[in-house]
Amino acid sequence: MAPIPAIRALEEAGVRFALHEYEHDPKSASYGAEAADKLDVDIDASALEHETILVNGGRRGLQIELDPRALVRLTDARVHEIASRPMGGTG
């Protein structure tokens, strides 16, 4: 596999991660929903509540699993709730 910038950055930062590949369907209407379905995971606004999350690895069919706090730190991200919680949920 050719070096992918996201993977190189994680390795250089010493962040633990795992790669998850799946067969990408070019006819898929939603890349995120396709990845969640094929990898059998939920993609949710509560990412920081999870031990690990999956993010795009730099090409279709490749996801990187890592600690969401490491992703926030490495990207200098600002975290906001952008999706509504289901009725009866907390917070």
Walkthrough of the structure:
The structure is a single chain. The chain is of the alpha+beta class and 91 residues long. It has a domain at 15-75: YbaK protein (Alpha-Beta Complex), CATH 3.90.960. Helix content is 29%, strand content 15%. The chain contains three helices and three strands, in the order αβαββα. It has a three-stranded antiparallel sheet. The longest helix is centred in the N-terminal third of the chain and has 9 residues, at 5-13. The radius of gyration is 14 Å and the shape is globular. The mean pLDDT is 83.
**Cα radius of gyration in angstroms:** 14 Å
- What is the level-2 CATH architecture name of the domain at 15-75? Alpha-Beta Complex
The name of the CATH superfamily of the domain at 15-75 reads YbaK/aminoacyl-tRNA synthetase-associated domain
Helix content: 25-40%
**If you average the pLDDT, what whole number results?**
83
Q: How many alpha or pi helices?
A: 3
Main β-sheet description:
3 strands, antiparallel
Q: What's the order of the H and E elements?
A: HEHEEH
Distance between the termini: 42 Å
Strand order of the largest sheet: 1-3-2
Sequence stretches where pLDDT stays below 50 over 5 or more residues: none
Number of strands: 3
Tell the overall outline. Answer: globular
CATH-defined topology of the domain at 15-75 = YbaK protein
